[in-house]
Specification:
CBS-domain, Citrate Synthase, domain 1, 2 domains, 22 helices, about 5% strand, binds acetyl coenzyme *A
């Protein structure tokens, strides 16, 4: 790696927020709380008439106040604020400020120049800057591929790679897949809570049903999208169609719309994507698209729009479990892409189209049909061991194995292995044999790398058993993951900051003279 200049030290002034949301000591707690909610901040600085900070009131104070049973409309800010808060100057380095203030357990610190309030900085911001860029550190210290780097906070869910566990909001995703219909999980992701009554569930289902139909302006164009290109690249077709939906329905920049509008965009896209997938597939095959049926469950309707027949209930149930298990999975590449695009204030359609692009890569979502291709290439049980060994020795990657985050069994793979067992069949038995051989071969030839099956391996087996065409495996993944993307778009837009990292320039040293014109 070429030598690079040190990253300049960041100052409090670089990371603070301004202007500051303030309150007067004589105002009521209810008024101050309303202002905090309106500006989506976790504290207000209490100032005197000269804009000098005399106190700070935080969410933690509100919780204490509520626990004490005090009436916020009759209680003054001065009664609950922390008086004479510690402050920091804008020209102090973030690292020094963090070191000086960390021990106090503050969350927010007013920034003061010449006794006047000029900003506010969170300890989290100071810590992030202090940790990622200590004095003299080089940007290349961030690992390639951003492995292990925390880039945001989320309440949507997460992955615990060492434990082999992932969750949606506070619930195990695998438990949700085993016990809930997909609409419940969709509502959990987009609105933050599972429905608690049958009426709430029905209302959400009715909202979706109305949005499943392809808008007229798009319907007429689908044939040309489906038939474009010599080869069928299903996610290419899907991203063109999604782009057209967003364009014709006039989705506006996320920066310019309120939460309700952005949520409506999200519901529209999530509902219509499965219909688009089925329609594009059928048009490409020379068949007429099939209208969605409101009387069928989500997965049953999806298979029906693809196959033209109502599927066996066990096939619909298996596909629904697969769909739920793939809705979200931490800050994977496509989700991060959706958030980066949203961080620019672009519309929700742009974020989903970009995410589809990221998902189309074989290292991300494009592997389930390749895993099945591998099973077919192996062919018979006795060929498994030599085939796998030769492939790994050649430097090939076994499709459906390995994961950036899981260093133990991928819980989705365990779920789908169970689903495959319930469905039964020769392919499932063969897949289990290949899995066992592959894990053996990988642990021998790639010791210490901890390579096990990922979601894609048994996904291929399950989808194939349920007669989902191979060309629709990745679009089927996209049709559930879009719910996760949209939940992340809503979260990013609600507390946005442009995502704009830096890079190490390692080319020839600039400025070089521009060669004479030709
Ligand atoms: N087969 C053989 N070796 C592998 C495999 C595999 N499937 N996966 C990783 N390795 C090896 C690598 O060759 C490397 O070995 P080395 O140290 O000798 O160079 C080591 O394990 C670490 O690999 P990385 O590439 O650093 O791991 P990374 O976290 O970047 O990759 C990935 C994760 C892309 C999923 C990888 O395991 C892979 O290519 N798998 C096959 C494709 C696949 O199944 N994709 C679907 C992923 S699931 C999803 O996105 C929904």
């Amino acid at each position: 790696m070429a030598a690079v200049a040190p990253v300049p030290e960041r100052l409090v002034a670089d990371v603070m927020s301004a202007p500051v949301v303030t309150a007067g000591a004589g105002e009521t707690i209810a008024v101050a709380a309303g202002r905090m909610a309106e500006h989506r901040v976790g504290s207000v600085v209490v100032t005197d008439s000269q804009l000098r900070p005399i106190g700070i009131l935080t969410e933690r104070d509100m919780i204490r106040l509520a626990a004490a049973g005090a009436d916020p409309t009759a209680t003054k800010v001065s009664e609950w604020m922390t008086t004479d808060p510690d402050v920091v100057a804008p020209d102090v380095t973030a690292r020094d400020a963090f070191a000086r203030l960390a021990e106090h357990g503050y969350r927010h610190i007013p920034v003061v120049r010449d006794a006047t309030l000029v900003g506010i900085v969170s300890m989290r911001d100071l810590m992030r800057v202090a940790v990622v860029q200590p004095a003299g550190a080089h940007a290349h210290e961030v690992p390639r591929g951003l492995e292990g780097v925390v880039v945001a906070e989320t309440t949507i869910g997460d992955v615990r790679g060492q434990e082999g566990f992932y969750h949606y909001r506070q619930y195990s995703a695998v438990d949700l897949a085993r016990t809930r219909p997909i609409e419940d999980v969709w509502q959990l992701m987009v609105d933050g809570a599972l429905p608690t009554t049958l009426e709430a569930r029905a209302a959400f289902a009715a909202e979706i049903a109305a949005l499943r139909t392809i808008p007229d302006a798009v319907r007429g164009e689908l044939g040309s999208i489906a038939r474009a290109g010599v080869e069928w690249v299903p996610l290419d077709a899907l991203r063109s169609a999604v782009s057209l939906v967003a364009q014709t329905l006039g989705f506006r920049p996320s920066l310019d719309v309120d939460h309700a509008t952005l949520r409506a965009n999200a519901m529209q896209i999530c509902a219509v994507v499965p219909t688009l997938v089925g329609a594009l597939w059928r048009l490409r095959s020379g068949d007429e698209p099939i209208e969605p049926r409101g009387d069928l469950g989500y997965a049953a309707n999806y298979l029906y729009m693809m196959q033209g027949e109502v599927p066996a209930p066990e096939h619909a149930a298996a596909v629904e479990k697969y769909l739920i298990s793939t809705i979200d999975h931490g800050f994977n590449a496509s989700t991060f892409t959706a958030r980066v695009i949203t961080s620019t204030g672009a519309d929700l359609g742009a974020a989903v189209v970009g995410a589809i692009g990221a998902l189309s890569g074989p290292l991300h979502g494009g592997a389930p049909s390749r895993a099945l291709d591998m099973l077919e290439a192996i062919g018979t049980p006795e060929r498994a061991e030599p085939w796998l060994r030769e492939a790994v020795e050649r430097g090939d990657r076994l499709m459906g194995f390995g994961h950036r985050v899981y260093k133990t069994d991928d819980p989705r793979s365990l779920l789908l292995r169970d689903v495959a067992r319930e469905l039964g069949g020769a392919r499932q038995e063969f897949a289990e044999l290949v899995e066992a051989k592959a894990v053996e071969v990988l642990s021998e030839l790639k010791p210490g790398r901890k390579l096990y099956t990922n979601v894609e391996f048994y996904a291929g087996v399950v989808l194939d058993t349920c007669a989902v065409p191979r060309g629709l495996f990745t679009p089927t993944f996209a049709s559930s993951r879009v719910i996760g993307w949209c939940a992340h778009v809503l979260e990013q837009a609600a507390a946005n900051r442009l995502i704009r990292p830096s890079c190490d320039y390692v080319g020839p040293p600039p400025p070089a003279p521009v060669p004479a014109p030709l």
